[in-house]
Design goal:
4-stranded antiparallel sheet; Alpha-Beta Plaits; elongated; alpha/beta; Aminopeptidase; 16 strands; 10 helices
Length: about 425
């Protein structure tokens, strides 16, 4: 009987191919550019209307407090409850996209389909995945499956800037929490035959140097903030970076080069605060922004301590050098437990739909998994969806339509296993 239901479900997804593409393209055509966070409400309502048409009870939820009232942070949540509240599977995708940038040969918000691909900013990352999740859930209803539990679908904001007004806020307010949520699927573009079980950690910090201003023709009367920063950056290059190359995680991070700990200098600035162009003076202030990707095996405290100790060592080289470290962002690494039933359900779905063995991977960056687990306390969370990760944030971004359909089938079979039939 279950095989018959499964066949009806996957056939239903195939029949809804055009519907899936239409929904994804409709979402792409709303330029939800972040920053600043444009048109969130319009995109949420487009998704919400579709969810209502598919039998979901829909809520529009504004983050409180709203971080930018001039660009309201509206999230949408659809709920379809079966015989019981639990088990509950939550499917989440973010509505926001990064700015399109230059280099496009198609309209970045045109939602154009050509040669089996959907083009546009957010097509891969990740409106196609969100649309696939919606069709996956709808396919169970059309196949006549009476749910034993509950399916939720949410479209949330600000993932590209941390997700704190989106999934983070839903977790803080208990809408995604271990008290009510059993499993979470985030259809990020990791590939239709790969299940993403976590990500590395992130530590962003600012290293600031203070100097003493003087006339540029008499630099001996001042103290340049560039000097300690230069020395610090040199020691990062010659000491810290080589040390990080010796640390490799056991997590299956992709691409392979990202399995090592890393540090990147995101920005360097020095001179006089607020002056452009700079005056002919000795730089009395300067800063560097660092992006440290740390491993589950390292931990945040050790990663931060290394940078602080290096700053202190540079300051000790010259009694006049003043440096300080300011924390900007911390995201702890996370990993789905081995043998998790959600992972198994998706792996089985991949094998059935695609006919090939699935691969477990971890993300080189972060996504909203961090909030689901760290704030919501839901351990059973993965990223699985259509699209190629390398397409994210690129000009002429695209997602293959065949992959959209295949991922919807896989998610539908996972939902069947986890919440139905009654």
């Amino acid at each position: 009987m279950r095989a018959t239901i499964a066949d009806r479900i996957t056939s239903g997804v195939e029949d809804a191919r055009d519907e899936l593409v239409e929904l994804a393209a409709d979402l792409v055509r709303v330029p939800t550019v972040n920053p600043p966070g444009e048109l969130y409400r319009e995109c949420a309502e487009r998704l919400g209307r579709r969810l209502q048409a598919y039998g979901f009870a829909v809520e529009y939820l504004r983050s409180e407090p709203d971080p930018d009232p001039s660009h309201p942070r509206w999230n949408v949540l659809g709920t379809r409850r079966g015989a019981a509240a639990r088990p509950l599977v939550h499917l989440n995708g973010h509505l926001d996209v990064v700015p399109p940038g230059d280099g496009w040969t198609v309209d970045p918000f045109g939602g154009e389909t050509r040669d089996g691909r959907l083009y546009g900013r957010g097509s891969a990352d990740m409106k196609a995945g969100l649309a696939a999740a919606v069709i996956a859930a709808e396919s169970l209803r059309r196949a006549g499956v009476e749910l034993a539990g509950t399916i939720e679908v949410s479209g949330t904001v600000d993932e590209e800037s941390g997700g704190f007004a989106g999934v983070g806020w839903l977790a803080e307010t208990g809408r995604i929490s271990a008290a009510r949520t059993d499993h979470v699927i985030i259809p990020e573009p990791l590939g239709v035959d790969r299940v993403c079980v976590g990500h590395r950690g992130v530590y962003w910090c600012r290293v600031r140097a203070r100097g003493k201003i003087a006339h540029g023709s008499m630099p001996f009367l001042g103290s340049s903030a560039v000097d300690p920063l230069g020395r610090f950056l040199e020691r990062v290059r010659t000491e810290l970076r080589p040390a990080l190359r010796g640390r490799r995680t056991d997590m299956p991070v992709v691409p392979e080069e990202a399995r090592w700990a890393s540090i990147n200098v995101n920005a360097v600035a020095a001179g006089q605060a607020g002056m452009s162009p700079q005056t002919p003076c000795v730089a009395d202030q300067g800063e560097v922004i660092l992006d440290r990707r740390f491993l589950l095996e390292e931990g945040f405290e050790a990663a931060r301590r290394e940078i602080v100790e290096l700053v202190e060592a540079v300051a000790a080289e010259n009694r006049g050098w003043r440096l300080e470290v300011e924390d900007l962002l911390v995201v702890h690494p996370t990993r789905t437990p081995a043998g998790d039933p959600l992972v198994i359900a998706l792996e089985d779905g991949i094998l059935e739909v695609l006919g090939r063995e699935p691969t477990l991977v971890a993300s080189p960056g972060t996504y909203d998994h961090k909030h689901v687990t760290r704030i919501g306390g839901v351990a059973s969370c993965v990223a699985y969806g259509p699209g190629v990760l390398e397409q994210a944030h690129q000009p002429d971004e695209w997602c293959a339509i065949d992959d959209m359909v295949a991922s919807a089938k896989v998610m539908a079979l996972a939902l069947l296993r986890l919440v139905g039939p009654r």
